[in-house]
């Protein structure tokens, strides 16, 4: 096995050249902004504004609904137009706060925190919690919860996930190029919470410029090292990233903290820096708008709540009609039926493709070639699990370690029979998790 990698994985077409070399562009929204109250794992946030209220940029509009939850802040100034269900990228209707943008962007005065050096650990956690920061790599787990393990002394590694292995996505890459100091500073802040931990900046080796910049910034920092990972999908998957960096293995029933690790992505860590150093809540994120249908692919600094359709227009619109539009990357993103949905804390990309390879593929019978087993990073047998899923055989599915699937899509990608293995396995996993929740 190669150093700083894992067994299995694939090398799909990257497509990153479309947007990687263009600087981040700030976008100011024009229409109404929609803030779903469920933008994270855990309890939905609770509105603290009412219809007709006037709000400013940086004003809290929804309070955390519990410990595993996160508050939400207005990213524009204007008037609360409604609190009602609105459609999100998954197709669900989610209760949301709608703000009519007045175009003035009047901002509240932020309370300047004490210097980091004198902040207690509890104060750092509280600043992160109050800022409404969640994992911005896709899962949306509240960051203050992730940074509050039961036994902090047993955390040995705080890993910055800088791999960005998903094809087409370049938002983390641009952040590393344009704001590397904040990334290093944010990681240093997190390390203050764990007395026995070291920091790792884990970057795939297809980003040599980022590796060089980060190594230069951390040359005199004994607690932070830069690790060059083998470029391979899904290198950014949490459990495989941990194994590649530390050699420690975790399974579906474990948390990273059980292996002495904490993992956060680039945008999340920089948001932590902004919260702890400047007292700023999470108001925006970087979104890659790309694909062969987009006239000018690039990364935008987007205010949370912005309508996806506006971002397409800002990128020059379509040069040809897309067959498929995906929120996120092509491997693990959600296909959209409508672009009239809001950008949330976990929105990483908007991918517009002229050809839908999945829908045009003709599925045939399994030929028992074993390719899905060869590339599976979870070391399971996807073809067999898909069969169990299709026959609703939950007992056999669990007995054959179906819950160890990370839903990366590698098996579906290489299958010569074009079987939708990942989708079948994913559906069964959801059913089993729902059953466990009922019990």
Summarize the structure in words:
The protein has 439 residues and is an alpha/beta fold. Among the domains are: 116-278, Rossmann fold (3-Layer(aba) Sandwich); 371-438, no CATH class. The protein contains 14 helices and 17 strands. Strands 1-14-13-17-15-16 form a 6-stranded mixed β-sheet, with helices on both faces. Strands 2-8-7-4 form a 4-stranded antiparallel β-sheet, with no helix packed on it. Strands 11-10-9-12 form a 4-stranded parallel β-sheet, with helices on both faces. Strand 15 and strand 16 (334-335) form a beta hairpin. It is globular, with a radius of gyration of 21 Å.
Query: How is the biggest beta sheet arranged?
Result: 6 strands, mixed
The quaternary state of the protein chains shown equals: single chain
CATH topology of the domain at 116-278: Rossmann fold
Uncertain segments are none
**Main structural class:** alpha/beta
The overall pLDDT, averaged over residues, is: 95
CATH superfamily of the domain at 116-278: NADH-ubiquinone oxidoreductase 51kDa subunit
CATH class of the domain at 116-278: Alpha Beta
| Global morphology | globular
Total beta strands: 17
Task: Determine the strand fraction and express it as a percent band.
Answer: 15-25%
